[in-house]
Amino acid sequence: MFRKCLASLALAPFPSPISISIPRITPVASQLVQRRSVHQVPHEGRPPKILITGGLGQLGIECAKLLRAHYGSENVILSDIIKPSQSVLENGPYIFADILDFKGLQKIVVNHRIDWLIHFSALLSAVGEQNVPLAVRVNIEGVHNVIELAKQYRLRIFVPSTIGAFGPDSPRNPTPNVTIQRPRTIYGVSKVHAELIGEYYYHKFGLDFRCLRFPGVISSDPPGGGTTDYAVAVFHDALRHGKYNCYLRPDTRLPMMYIEDCLRALLEFMRAPNEQLKRRVYNVTAMSFTPEELFAQLGKHVPNLHVTYQPDSRQLIADSWPEVFDDSDARKDWHWQHKYDLANLVDFMVKDVQENYINGQLQQQKLQI
């Protein structure tokens, strides 16, 4: 149901990236690239051609559906290094793209005449802590590649950031757009790095860099390794088994938003005229709640829901993150408004998980018998 809704309007475990292949740019080659950039014809008069990296994670597939509804299927290219499902291939163009292969990315941009680049490739917070070297390569070296690529070919580039870009020294309630950050996870460190390098390229080279700090994003897709993923996992466990073991304390308040609000914010931000944007990085959010509050709302749909609490290392991460996100700058500058509150979110999540996962699996089991 949710997918039909988006059309009308986690990350999976990340395989080891292919070896880095960043070409050495000589002064002459750099000048040639810059000349080509200066004389590039803008995409006025036609829809933008859009490349989505890391497209098989939590946001990529649904983002592609939303953008294709606005700009046409052939103008939105989904990419990743993971083999796609048949349904992904049937919904529009899909290509292999390794963000650590700079020359390969150049070929894609040139061959497909890319105008916008939406960069979703990343290892999330909990997964990144388990493999810091890989997180550095994917989250930092990968960002270097796409930022430089966007500069050379004059692309509009979107790189998402996160509540994880803040740390224990940041004000938590509310957390303003500009404040001390100093995160203590490699995920957060890499996101602060992305924000700063993008802003630097904007001021130094005029790069059209755009970045939204997202809160926990809730969708029906199975959780992919984030600290806020309890708010996804509980729907799957509650609807299947009637119980859930939560890895955060019941009073752990965190900012959240439903995926439809998240992707609509991205689209509205990408379409906003440059003169409306007073900064390149904005907080966006919809609500803040605790596990206890979410489970109470879900209990209206699963009356006998049994919840236990067993905080683990993710609790330390959550304790360093914002409790309430101040996104007043986004609401003022480009008129951001969320649509979903906690009650709406729970209603849609119950229906979506039930229809697309629980009922679908039961149907498959019947066919196998």
UniProtKB/TrEMBL annotation:
Pfam families: Epimerase. Residues 50-284 form the NAD-dependent epimerase/dehydratase domain. It catalyses: L-threonine + NAD(+) = (2S)-2-amino-3-oxobutanoate + NADH + H(+). It is an enzyme of class 1 (oxidoreductase). Gene3D superfamilies: NAD(P)-binding Rossmann-like Domain. Its EC number is 1.1.1.103. SUPFAM superfamilies: NAD(P)-binding Rossmann-fold domains (SSF51735). It comes from the Eukaryota. One of its GO terms (molecular function) is L-threonine 3-dehydrogenase activity. Transmembrane segments: none annotated. Pathway: Amino-acid degradation; L-threonine degradation via oxydo-reductase pathway; glycine from L-threonine: step 1/2. One of its GO terms (biological process) is L-threonine catabolic process. Catalyzes the NAD(+)-dependent oxidation of L-threonine to 2-amino-3-ketobutyrate, mediating L-threonine catabolism. PANTHER family: L-THREONINE 3-DEHYDROGENASE, L-THREONINE 3-DEHYDROGENASE, MITOCHONDRIAL. Belongs to the NAD(P)-dependent epimerase/dehydratase family. This is L-threonine 3-dehydrogenase, mitochondrial. It comes from Drosophila gunungcola.
